[in-house]
Specification:
alpha+beta, 620 residues, single chain, four-stranded antiparallel β-sheet
Length: 620
């Protein structure tokens, strides 16, 4: 049957062919391929000889006169007529010099090699013959169809996989892969959160972290919660990362503090473990300091001042009022009642290095040192308070006139450090002081790049005072002989809280849980971690039984887009970026560091810490 298809086809004749771009023109037939039922044709285009292989179906569709007749059964032993060598040479010469023209019908008739062949009249049987040839397909077409079938199967499998995931996860969320990885990791943990029944430990410096819930704006934007607090003192940040090949994975960074409060903890719960143990200190002639630190919009003012109802603040549930309530309760005890102590309150703010009295129409104040080298805030009003209601009135007055502004993260951001002090005096002399500080929100330079000049100056002054505060607290915790309190106006005002022997400090680091605030959250946790350097061991992370090894600290996950489930592919490991505190602190060559201190004159400062870290790395 294959030989019957080549009855009217001879080498050297011109046939009509169709190009891949749809053009139709003549080409010379140069070879016959009976095995694949195809022919090879060549033509000259722009002085270049080109060729291609065409199946018989394509030849017969454009040249119906070459299709075989069904009623003619040629003998399979009959070989095709030979072509004289002179004719072949003539064909080759004409191929090199003459280019076919599509529309010239007279030239097309004259190009037929050999005797003039008459086009036979099409018979009715040729239509059925062309239908049979249409069923024949070349190997190339068959391979393309196989590839299309495989592609369709893969698309169906991916669609089924997406539908299954959509039933569990909101597929409209752009970060749903990260959500799956976080959910899978959280499922391997045993949760033992902080409760009111847990004991309260005594700390000279207490550092704790409070996580706020997602707000309405973050919920509408479908922001993800990337903070996990599995136990009462461990905070984990699930930082999304991306590899060079665009594979998304999760880097889990672990921190440990004295206390960790999740998003369900109330202000009373936070106060019980942070500021309440410090109240007794001021009755023992000591100094107590409690401050809230964190990114703007992370809940500092909510923690210190109280709950917000719209733009109005309920000051009765803030740490200011809760501390004042316990102060008045302590005054009623017999051992303190006989001291005849009087309670006073002050409320002032530090804005751009200047001090303003919030209880006296924001009068500008001066910070000076007296002859005994004691820092005095000249002109600051101290108002005597008799009950908690008096404290509530003062906090409401002060909060109403506190400096605030609009930033990229918060429409009503506190742009000043607010200091509320509860002072105990005995016969006019200072007996104890409790400073409650709502710090301004720290900001990265990248976040204030689009802000105006005033906002950038405010951010620079805020960050400067926060760094100075950190160094003072570290010096207090490490019992260093020098405390750099003159580095900012904030630390200068709180000087007596740092240099007194009987002083205690509590820091509440507030963090935002959203994935958009991940970098700011990590900066806040690193800041808090540097205040009081904690160590962390593998047993601090409460992995559930059978879910992983406790020797693993920072698990990394990556997401495979064609995998039916989220697969844990990397071993749990910890990076240096999480904290230097993951391993027990090892001190190498203290004499070498001391020599560098003496030679370069570097005291208690960040430069000394960098030198110390450099020396430790060189010793390894």
């Amino acid at each position: 049957m294959a030989a019957a298809n080549f009855v009217k086809i001879q080498i050297g004749i011109y046939v009509e062919i169709e190009r891949s771009d749809g053009r139709i023109h003549q080409a010379m037939l140069t070879s016959l391929n009976e095995d694949s039922e195809s022919v090879t044709v060549e033509w000259i285009e722009n002085g270049v000889v080109k060729g291609k292989e065409i199946d018989l179906e394509g030849i017969f569709s454009l040249n119906p006169d070459l299709a075989p007749d069904e009623d003619i059964e040629p003998s399979p032993e009959t070989p095709p007529p030979p072509i004289p060598a002179a004719k072949v040479n003539k064909i080759v010469k004409s191929r090199q010099t003459v280019a076919p023209i599509k529309n010239d019908t007279s030239a097309r008739d004259n190009r037929v090699v050999g005797s003039a062949r008459a086009r036979p009249t099409q018979l009715p049987e040729q239509s059925s013959s062309s239908q049979q040839n249409a069923c024949r397909k070349s190997n190339c077409v068959k391979e393309v169809e196989k590839l299309q079938e495989k592609r369709e199967k893969r698309r169906l499998q991916q669609q089924e996989l997406r539908e299954k995931r959509a039933q569990v996860v909101d597929a409209t969320n752009p970060n749903y892969e990260i959500m799956c990885m976080i959910r899978d990791f959280r499922g391997s943990l045993d949760y033992t959160p902080l409760t009111a029944a847990d004991p309260i430990d005594e700390h000279r410096i207490c550092v704790c972290v409070r996580k706020r819930p997602l707000n309405k704006k973050e919920t509408l934007m479908k922001d993800l919660d990337v903070i996990t607090i599995p136990s009462k003192d461990v905070v984990m940040v699930h930082e999304p990362k991306q590899k060079v090949d665009l594979t998304r994975y999760l880097e889990n960074q672990t921190f440990r503090f004295d206390y960790a409060f999740d998003d369900t903890a109330s202000n009373e719960m936070v106060y019980r473990f942070t500021a309440q143990p410090l109240v007794e200190t001021i009755f023992e002639r000591g100094m107590a300091t409690c401050f809230a630190y964190g990114q703007t919009g992370s809940g500092k003012t909510h923690t210190m001042g109280g709950d917000f109802l719209g733009r109005n603040q309920d000051c009765s549930k803030g740490i200011y009022t809760l501390a004042a309530r316990d102060v008045f309760l302590m005054l009623k005890k017999p051992n303190y009642n006989k001291l005849e102590l009087q309670v006073y309150a002050t409320f002032f703010e530090i804005y751009s290095g200047k001090v303003f009295d919030l209880l006296n129409r924001k009068t500008k104040l001066r910070v000076l040192e007296d002859g005994k080298q004691q820092v005095q805030v000249v002109g600051l009003q101290e108002r005597e308070v008799k009950c908690v209601e008096d404290v509530l009135k003062l906090t409401e007055i002060g909060n109403s006139c506190r400096t605030s502004g609009q930033t990229s993260a918060n429409a009503h951001s506190s742009r000043s450090h607010a200091v509320f002090q509860i002072i105990l005096r005995r016969k006019g002399k200072l007996h104890g002081k409790f400073s409650l500080i709502d710090l301004a929100g720290n900001e990265r330079g990248a976040d204030t790049f689009s802000a105006d000049r005033q906002t950038r100056l405010e951010g620079a002054e805020i960050n400067k005072s926060l760094l100075a505060l950190k160094e003072c607290i570290r010096a207090l915790g490490q019992n260093k002989p020098h405390t750099p309190f003159r580095a900012s106006k904030l630390t200068q005002v709180l000087r007596d809280s740092f240099i007194r022997g009987n002083s205690r400090t509590c820091m509440i680091a507030t963090i935002s849980p959203g994935i958009a605030s991940c970098e700011n959250t990590l900066n806040t946790l690193r800041y808090a971690n540097r205040v009081k350097e904690f160590g962390i061991s593998p047993s601090d992370i409460p992995f559930s039984q059978g879910s992983g090894s406790r020797s693993d600290l920072s698990p990394s996950y990556e997401y495979d887009d064609f995998s039916p489930s989220v697969t844990r592919v990397k071993g749990l490991k910890i990076g240096r970026s999480t904290a230097e505190d993951i391993h027990p602190t090892v001190h190498h060559a203290p004499n070498q560091i001391d020599d560098l201190e003496t030679r370069w004159g570097v005291g208690s400062s960040p430069q000394r810490d960098d030198l110390k870290l450099l020396c430790e790395q060189n010793m390894k």
